[in-house]
Design a protein that fits this description.
The complex is a heterodimer. Chain A is of the alpha/beta class. Chain A has a single domain, classed as 3-Layer(aba) Sandwich (Rossmann fold), CATH 3.40.50. Helices cover 24% and strands 21% of the residues of chain A. In chain A, strands 2-1-3-4-11-10 form a six-stranded mixed sheet. In chain A, strands 7-6-9 form a three-stranded antiparallel sheet, with no helix packed on it. In chain A, a hairpin with a 5-residue loop joins strand 10 and strand 11. In chain A, helix 3 packs across helix 5. The model of chain A has no long low-confidence stretch (mean pLDDT 96). Chain B is an alpha+beta fold. Chain B has four domains: 158 residues, Phosphoribosylformylglycinamidine synthase subunit PurS (Mth169, Chain: A, 2-Layer Sandwich), CATH 3.30.1280.10; 60 residues, no CATH class; 304 residues, Alpha-Beta Complex (Phosphoribosyl-aminoimidazole Synthetase, Chain A, domain 2), CATH 3.90.650; 212 residues, Phosphoribosyl-aminoimidazole Synthetase, Chain A, domain 2, CATH 3.90.650.10. The two termini of chain B are 43 Å apart. The mean pLDDT of chain B is 93. Classes of the chains: A alpha/beta, B alpha+beta.
Chain lengths: 275, 996
């Protein structure tokens, strides 16, 4: 049987490649590769050889022009060595091939700024939403309760009962839309996969610090209408084992952390549909 | 013609940055303003078409969802004053650099020489303000005039001149490559003038040694062969000044001390470093025998110890005090990214796994007048916190442990300690990972950033006190992304075996890094004209000593150079061959064909005789405060919890990513609401293993007012007891010492030098004594010896401060223990005895007193108890453990209780007492800071097992965890002495720094 293959892109300020790759392996991918963007631009590694693309956390280009802006520009304009192909074409082909992309934190910022999300009508290079400075004006590292939309098409969150508990670690996580119409389409399509909420996963909240950034409608995660592309500000790769939970010394927790389900679902989807 | 691209938030979008500035103006400067909005300004000085400019503005420079952009047209509207702040020429402009790269991707063309993108921010301020007020907002908050320029326009002026004109802060100049000769055949007064005017920080003795060197006929004959005369070149003199600086050479720690104690007993100490620090490690290692885990100590950029059979741990802690005093943001950012290069440049290189940081500041709410040139403590606090935030977070290294320490004297110089640990394979390319060497013929390669005038004289400047004329160029601004790119490349080059030796470019720049590397093989020949420069106009001596950041120096075998350079290009990292290593015994610098420095290695490294340092110890005596017995100490406890040194630092800590890399096990905060103060950090650096790294620290400068011997003993003990508390193993733990002292060299400027030197001697004595008893080898450290401010009239010296850091192991991180109480009914134990030791305590500091009864460490009993406690942890009998330090038992009990969300009842009469019973009172029992104590809770079903393991040690059950939400403490006579709700205590503890 063919292998299920995940790739994690790093370089230019990506920081979470190691734990993202670890989560892919734990989630069940047969092979997981950490690829430096230089190795992709040089043509040594091609996205075509993988099923699941991880754009993970970090500070691409230091957030210098706003988070992920410079990388979005790089991906759109840079040419893969030894070909006439722009890197962005590998991305659009990856999406067209029905494969999976998960953007976490800086990777989510990159996805929205490239226009990959929400990806209405198959348009994956048209920016309509953004992630910007937290209302509190500061970087925040704190854990958040995230209420899941059970009706969401996201393949990543299948089987989550009420919600999950994950850390956020960002300065630019406030979700905004370019118009009310965009927001309505997101809501009507159940594309807002996760929302910051209270400890019982009952109600979404706009209150700091439960909602750490002031996101519109408390939106913490977004998927495209196919459910195969998803981005989220909280870090699922940072909670795959109970010892990563802030209160593991005082609560009886299962071995696996809440974030692992996203990677398990991805591996399961790939095995059923792509190999 | 340069163009201005302006990017502004749409009117409907909240401007979080502007709102923060508004808050800070009102909070710091007490000037009410109606609103602040901000605009990003990119000045593009490059040959671009209008279409290309539009693509840049609408693409990478702006976000279409929330921002509008314009080219050469102002976007500002609806304000009373506009202030635009940009960098001065030559200052690192990270945003500008990224902007330039973005434009290059769009056009597909590289910028031509001299072209660039420059970033500035426009602040639009609304409110009823005078021009003077706006000026003070500009200089007091928005702009650090050392590194930034600003322009203020009132709305009327703004309309008249239609906004700001494009300003290009380009460094202009051409490379003349001037090499001057300096005549040293002059009077002693003239020699000292040369040293002072040139910020060389060389003493008269040292200048005379150099003078003598250039009189040696053999030297002169050799010099002639290379076209050099009898006078030193500026390159040579600057190079010697760097190499011999206190910062690089540690002359005070290497000097000969004549020490006299309080009884008049005299002793000569040849090198404090060798006599105490190095000897500690040597003696501990000898005693450990087969169990010795030290792999590389003192000789490399960081210390290396064994972690397991496959991996070694690397650790280094540095200070960056002087630059942080001048430019808190840039200084601190450089501090953290600078110390990152130490473990990275240790052995063949290591992967960085966590940062630690400890800051010592004056009260951020300081209201008294300050000497000129000193920034307000609040600005230092803000700048340093933000600088380390950006440096650590952007580099993807979790900040797992640290503290903030406050004392008024730190307004003279803040202390900024930054530490970084790394993990390296035990074996790399069939060689121990911690070993490296150089062969003559290997190429000198520099990678990373380019060289500018930034950081020139950093090493010599930090070897002097801060004064009104401290050089601006001594400040650098780090660029974590350039460094991260370089690390991404180098760690892969390491694994391919593409280099033989790596080291950091830190203080002293190439003069230090290449100078030290040349010492490995016995010489080097380097062409300074080959070094890549940020801008033209640098003279050879400036190239040699520049401390421009993000650079590593390597020795690359000639047969690997092509592959090394090709890989660097692919990874977008600049790498340049500057010369080669030799074995001819000479540090030989060229500029093109011309020899500009020719220095025998033995003179550079061995030419300096030891300093002679008098030291006389006279114990100080402070007024002994009379402590009135009080009926209730509840208010005192709340005041203590709210005091700067004890209160919650959550507003700072949450700004630091402490979880990236995924290995976090014990986080900075513990407890039911994730907000109790953890004692130490536990990290799993290898995600599919449960072996954990434990790190902790101790620091207590207040005790230096009484006796630095006990200050040091307490700092070491505090570090180890924090480490032990979470479950760190005593079988594998090592220490790092960071001394930050005020100038201890007796002189006209420092008439009390002999006392300060004696304080240093006593600190070293304690370090040896305690580390020996604790089996703690010292693996690395650093000293910073000139932490004074002096402007000719006012002198402010910091209290002598030792930061003691420990790094070690917990075999199974799943057994780690946190400080929050876990459930009602658990038994509360106090491990260790309490004594009448309020001297130097936070409690006495509440009333401005110091006292004399300093806590004394009983190392033998403490070590035995720590061992027993560790066994109790291993057996799973401990529910929670919190160390007792600032504020004593009362503070520890309050913190454990409110962190866990359960009350606690404690009976002081059950506490074990040490020493004279006359000093035993409710007050001393509650607040004494006696060393080596832990507050432990144990589930009742574990009681027997816990007590069995601890038997033979001093410990006693003193209370119980309760369902109620109160801390209730009963005094010696059976009445309540503390009764407070947990929420009140927590609020007192959290409110002090919450809004900072």
């Amino acid at each position: 049987m063919k292998q299920t293959r995940a790739i994690v892109i790093t370089g230019n300020g990506t920081n979470c490649e190691m734990e993202a790759a670890h989560a892919c392996r734990l989630g069940g991918f047969d092979d997981t590769v950490i690829a430096h963007i230089a190795e992709i631009l040089s043509g040594e590694i091609s996205l075509d050889d993988f099923h699941f693309l991880n754009l993970t956390g970090g500070f691409l280009d230091g957030d210098d022009l706003g988070s992920a802006k410079a990388q979005a520009n790089r991906l759109k304009n840079a040419v893969v060595a030894g070909s006439n192909e722009k890197l962005v074409e590998q991305f659009t082909r990856f999406i067209a091939d029905g494969k999976l992309i998960l953007g976490v934190c800086n990777g989510f910022q990159l996805m929205v700024k490239m226009g990959m999300l929400p990806g209405f009508d198959g348009g994956y290079l048209n920016q309509t939403v953004t992630l910007t400075h937290n209302d509190c004006g500061r970087f925040q590292d704190r854990w958040t309760y995230l209420k899941v939309d059970a009706a969401s098409p996201s393949i990543f969150t299948r089987g989550i009962d009420k919600g999950i508990y994950l850390p956020v670690r960002h300065g630019e996580g406030k979700f905004l839309c370019d118009s009310n119409a965009t927001l309505q389409r997101i809501e009507n399509g159940h594309l807002a996969v996760l929302r910051y909420c209270d400890v019982d996963y009952a109600e979404a909240t706009m209150e700091f610090p439960a909602n750490p950034n002031g996101s519109t409608n408390a939106i913490a995660a977004l998927c495209d209408p196919t459910g195969r592309l998803m981005g989220l500000m909280p870090h699922p790769e940072a909670f795959v084992h109970y010892t990563q939970h802030p209160r593991w010394t005082r609560e009886n927790l299962p071995e696996e952390g809440d974030g692992l389900v996203l990677y398990k679902n991805a591996a399961e989807y790939v095995r059923r549909n792509l190999v | 013609m340069p163009s201005r691209i302006e990017v502004a938030l749409k009117d409907s979008v909240r401007d979080a940055r502007g709102e923060r500035i508004k808050r800070e103006i009102e909070h710091f400067l007490h000037i009410p303003v109606a609103a602040v909005r901000t605009i990003d300004v990119y000045t593009v000085d490059a040959n671009l078409s209008t279409e290309e400019l539009q693509l840049a503005a609408s693409g990478p420079f702006s976000d279409p969802v929330i921002q509008d952009w314009s080219i050469n047209r102002t976007l500002a509207a609806g304000f009373d004053y506009a202030v635009e702040v940009g960098f001065r020429p030559g200052v690192t402009d990270n945003v500008g650099r990224t902007g330039r790269e973005a434009v290059e991707y769009i056009t597909g063309r590289a910028f031509a020489g001299g072209e660039g993108v420059y970033y500035a921010v426009q602040y639009l301020i609304s409110g009823t303000l005078s021009a003077d007020q706006v000026e003070s907002i500009a200089t007091g908050l928005l702009c650090n005039t050392l590194i930034q320029r600003y322009t203020v326009l009132s709305v009327a002026d703004f309309l008249t001149c239609t906004g700001f004109s494009a300003q290009v802060p380009k460094v202009t100049g051409e490379t003349k490559a001037v090499v001057k000769e300096i005549d040293l055949e002059v009077s002693d007064v003239e020699l000292m003038k040369i040293s002072k005017d040139g910020v060389l920080a060389l003493t008269l003795d040292e200048m005379q040694i150099i003078q003598a060197h250039y009189r040696d006929p053999k030297i002169l004959a050799e010099r002639q062969k290379f076209g050099l005369g009898a006078k030193p070149t500026d390159v040579e003199l600057e190079c010697l000044a760097q190499t011999w600086s206190e910062h690089c050479k540690h002359k005070i720690f290497a000097g000969t001390v004549q020490y006299e104690d309080e009884n008049g007993v005299k002793q000569e100490i040849k090198s404090l470093f060798k006599s105490f620090i190095q000897r500690t490690t040597k003696d501990v290692r000898e005693r450990m025998g087969d169990k010795d885990f030290c792999l590389s100590v003192f000789k490399d950029n960081a210390g290396v110890i064994k972690f397991n059979e496959q991996h070694s741990l690397v650790f280094k802690v540095e200070t960056h005090n002087s630059p942080s005093a001048l430019d808190p943001y840039g200084g601190a950012l450089t501090g953290i990214v600078g110390v990152n290069r130490d473990p990275f440049g240790t052995g063949q290189g290591s992967k960085l796994i966590f940062n630690t940081d400890v800051f010592c500041f004056a009260d951020p709410f300081y209201t008294k007048p300050l000497p000129s040139r000193l920034l307000h403590p609040r600005r230092i606090y803000e700048g340093v916190v933000e600088g380390v935030e950006h440096g650590g977070n952007k580099s993807g290294i979790p900040t797992v442990n640290g503290s903030l320490v406050f004392d008024e004297r730190f307004c003279g110089k803040p202390l900024v300690f930054c530490g970084t640990a790394g993990l390296m394979p035990a074996v790399v390319n069939n060689q121990p990972g911690h070993d490296k060497y150089i062969k003559p013929g290997d190429l000198i390669v520099m990678t990373g950033g380019r060289i500018g005038k930034d950081g020139i004289h950093g090493a010599t400047f930090s070897s002097e006190e801060l004064n009104e004329n401290s050089p601006v160029t001594a400040v650098q601004i780090g660029d974590p992304i350039t460094q991260k790119r370089m690390f991404d490349f180098l760690i892969r080059a390491r694994d391919k075996g593409l280099y033989r030796f790596i080291t950091d470019n830190g203080a002293g720049g190439l003069s230090s890094s290449i100078g030290e590397m040349a010492g490995e093989c016995g010489g080097c020949r380097m062409d300074l004209s080959k070094a890549p420069l940020k801008y033209p106009g640098l003279n050879p001596w400036e190239i040699l000593i520049s401390e421009a950041q993000e650079r590593m120096s390597l020795a690359v075998p000639p047969e690997q150079i092509d592959e090394f350079l090709a890989m660097a290009v692919r990874f977008g990292v600049e790498a340049t061959v500057l010369g080669e290593f030799t074995d001819n015994g000479v540090f030989h610098m060229l500029y093109g064909e011309q020899t500009v420095a020719w220095l025998p290695m033995d003179f550079m490294h061995e030419g300096l005789p030891p300093m002679q340092l008098p030291a006389k110890w006279t114990p100080p005596h402070h007024a002994e405060p009379m402590l009135d017995e009080k009926k209730s100490y509840t208010d005192d406890l709340k005041r203590l919890l709210a005091s700067l040194n004890i209160c919650s630092k959550e507003s700072v800590v949450r700004r630091y990513d402490h979880e990236v890399q995924g290995g976090s096990v014990i986080k900075p905060f513990s407890g039911v609401a994730n907000d109790g103060p953890s004692d130490a950090a536990v990290v799993r650096p290898i995600l599919d293993s449960f072996e954990g790294v434990v790190t902790a620290h101790g620091i207590c400068p207040r005790y230096s007012d009484i006796d630095t011997y006990h200050m040091t003993a307490n700092a070491v003990d505090e570090a180890l007891r924090n480490y032990v508390a979470v479950g760190g193993s005593l079988e594998l733990v090592a220490g790092l010492d960071n001394f930050c002292w005020c100038d201890p060299v007796q002189s006209d400027k420092t008439p009390d030098g002999a006392y300060k030197m004696a304080q240093l001697v006593r600190s070293n004595q304690a370090l040896y004594d305690v580390c020996m008893d604790y089996n703690l080898p010292l693996i690395s450290g650093k000293d910073s010896m000139k932490n004074d401010f002096y402007d000719g009239t006012t002198k402010i010296s910091i209290p002598p401060t030792l930061l003691f850091s420990v790094i070690g192991k917990i075999d199974d991180a799943r057994k780690a223990v946190t400080m929050d109480v876990k459930r009602p009914g658990d038994i509360v134990y106090l491990l260790g005895k309490t004594a009448d030791e309020l001297g130097g305590s936070e409690y006495l500091a509440l009333s401005g007193a110091i006292g004399n009864k300093i806590p004394k460490v009983d190392t033998v009993k403490a070590y035995k108890r720590y061992q027993a406690y560790h066994e109790a942890v291993n057996r799973g009998t401990v529910a929670s453990c919190h160390d007792l330090s600032d504020g004593g038992l009362a503070v520890a009990a309050a913190e454990s209780a409110f962190a866990g969300g359960f009350g606690m009842n404690i009976d002081l009469s059950l506490m074990l007492w040490k020493g004279d019973a006359a000093g035993k009172s409710d007050c001393t029992l509650l607040f004494s800071e006696s060393a080596s104590r832990h507050l432990v809770t144990v589930h009742p079903e574990q009681r027997d097992a816990f007590e069995a393991v601890m038997s033979g040690n001093c410990f006693e059950s003193i209370g119980v965890v309760t369902e109620g939400q109160e801390l209730l403490i009963t005094g010696l006579n059976g009445t309540s002495v503390v009764a407070a709700g947990l929420s009140d205590l927590k609020e007192a503890w959290q409110q002090t720094l919450r809004d900072l």
